[in-house]
Amino acid sequence: MNSKNNTQLHTNLSELQQLFETYISDCEYTKNLRWQTIKSYREVFSTFQKLLPDIKDTSDLEPHQMNEFYKLLSTRERIVGKGAIKIGVKPSTIRTYHNKLIAFFSWLENYNHIEKGSFVRHVTKPPLPTYEDEKALSDQEVSKIIASITLHSIDNPFMFKRDILIVMLFLYTGIRKGELIGLRIQDIDFENHTLYVFEKTSKSKKSRYIPLHHALIKHLKVYLKKRKTKKLYTDALIVSLKQDRALTHYGLVHWVRKYKQLSGVKFHVHQFRHTFACTLAKQNADLTSIMRVLGHSSIQMTARYLRSITAENSRSFIEKITY
Predict the structure, then answer these.
(1) Distance of alpha carbon 36 from alpha carbon 296, whole angstroms
(2) Among residues 263, 185, 175, 264, which one has the least CA distance to residue 220?
(3) Sorting pLDDT into bands at 50, 70 and 90, what band is 131?
């Protein structure tokens, strides 16, 4: 698309849309946010426009409209899966939408597009969500996923070693999906038994080192030895099965979909991260250590990852009490 068409497209946008595009450009090039984060900001703003189509200019913005937006999010019908209808979204999703929109509205105030103190401070925050579901995978669920990989890749040894390594990396390091995709061979330090997570692939925008478990080291060496026979030149650690390049985001989505169906376990990648955190906690790791290895910026965020640990998990400790 040439510059003339770009200018015409920008002209056709409402005032609020134009400002949002400027805000996104600021986020992308000044704050250097990841493309996944930029994509989520766009999706949230698009939903806001869809549910409140009359808000086109900054002069149309009123704090009470956010309450209406939350209500519509909670009650609207959505088609999910194969034509199934779902009512509303989870409270945690509403809170996420709130945070992303408030970031945009705060930017509008900071750059004097709307009067400072006229909007953000008057918006009622949706309540913090209460989590009752268990996010960590059980030992049985993990076993089923590993068994499905073993049973359905018997005719493809390289796929077996790669797919098992993916699971082991998630289970033994707790890395995020974007961090997995961004791993390079040189990020593995066998001498010091560490995995390096590069800041540009990390959601926290901070680099970190993760100690490598001896079982993971074994899987890494087996995979890399097999990989040499494939004559691949990419420095990406986890590769596509079809091309000489890194596994893509969509390739990982396909990977999850495949093993959900084969294993019968309804899981998503982030559950491995919760599983890793809970496993460390059950091994008496302190919260600060868990926070740092996960790359979190606060203890509060880490504590949310441990909600799968129930009172029953304390039984063995209670039984050891003596007076």
Answers:
(1) 18
(2) 185
(3) low
Global pTM reads: 0.71
Rounded Cα distance, 138 and 168, in Å: 15
Place of tokens 């750059």: 111
**Which residue shows structure tokens 């209406």?**
68
79: enclosing H helix or E strand: strand 77-80
Q: What is the pLDDT of residue 2?
A: 52
Q: β-strand 208-211 against 194-197: which pairing, if any?
A: antiparallel
In CATH terms, the fold of domain 3-122 is DNA polymerase; domain 1 (1.10.150)
CB atoms inside a 10 Å sphere around CB 46:
12
| Phi, psi dihedrals of residue 192, rounded to the nearest 5° | -100, 0
The answer to whether 24 touches 32, Cβ cutoff 8 Å, is no
Nearest to 16 by CA among 78, 93, 104, 98: 104
CB-based burial label for 35 (10 Å; 0-12, 13-18, 19+): exposed
Architecture per CATH, 139-310: Orthogonal Bundle (1.10)
Which residue ranges make up each domain of the chain? 3-122, 139-310
Long-range CB contacts for residues 131-134, cutoff 8 Å, separation at least 24: 131/92, 131/304, 131/307, 134/307, 134/308
pLDDT at residue 181 above 90?
yes
The closest alpha carbon to 269, from 288, 251, 283, 256, belongs to 256
Count the alpha carbons within 13 Å of 207 in the hemisphere toward its beta carbon: 7
